[in-house]
Amino acid sequence: MASTSRRALDAQPPGTAPGTVPGKVLGTAKEPRLSARATATAEIYRSLRGDIVAMRRKPGEPIVEKHVAESFGVSRTPVREALLRLADDGLVEIFPQSGTFVARIPVNALPEAVVIRTSLECTAVRYAAVRAARSQVAALRANILLQQETMAAGDLDGFHEADEAFHSLISEIAGFPGLWNMAQQVKVQVDRYRRLTLPEPGRIPHVLAEHGGIVDAIAARDPAEAERLMTIHLGALLESVPNTQGANPFFFSGAQPDDASKTKKESTPS
Q1: Where is this chain compositionally biased, Basic and acidic residues type (predicted)?
Q2: Domain boundaries, the chain
Q3: Is the distance from CB of 192 to CB of 55 less than 8 angstroms?
Q4: Under CATH, which number does the domain 39-104 receive?
Q5: DSSP 8-state symbol, 260
Q6: Is residue 16 very low, low, confident or very high in pLDDT (cuts 50, 70, 90)?
Q7: Per the confidence metrics, is the pTM higher than 0.90?
Q8: Which CATH number fits domain 107-251: 1.20.120.530, 3.30.450.30, 3.40.250.10, 3.40.190.10?
Q9: Which of 143, 172, 181, 208 is least crowded, fewest Cβ atoms below 10 Å from its Cβ?
Q10: What is the pLDDT of residue 75?
């Protein structure tokens, strides 16, 4: 046994401490650096994505790698990695000779995204109307109160967050929170468009009224009515596309629908 141990020690690379497994020293040194870079990439991705979806970074606006790196106190590598992820999401466009820019909203993609979201959320609201406990209905009404407070304060970001929480809560009450997770994956461009519509006069009160009707249907345990109201609520997003695009032509790419109301009808299940 002693000779075997001696041979194992003699076989180790020069400078390796006795009992150390070869390769572990290098691996240990690299892992923290890789982990730190991955963390920085994720943080930059979340920050830029949040700014783009909230329209704090406008479509067509340049994103300068150097400035982002300096603001986060990192090298350009995690910034590039974050931008590649955002490009995969369709939120930035990278032109090797020109730079990186916030992508314009693809207007032709909005109807399909709304149809997919409507299908997912109508399923959720039907189950919610069957399964909701009184405490869960109370939670929905509390959320609507929060929406009213953010509206009164003129807090558009706060209203959007409360709106998102409202729809997420419906999926949780349904017992299928994954439905909301799936909806979020397809509605990112719709969210950008929605942020442009919130300042429109009467828009938020109208949304609040629709939310209230949905909650009433859930409380009444009427899945058919809840689904009907959710379909109207989400389909209404498409009605103002022509006006919103007309008011912000440089924020969109692609041709606007010829008839938004027709698109809505075609996307509404019979």
Answers
A1: 259-270
A2: 39-104, 107-251
A3: yes
A4: 1.10.10.10
A5: H
A6: very low
A7: no
A8: 1.20.120.530
A9: 181
A10: 93
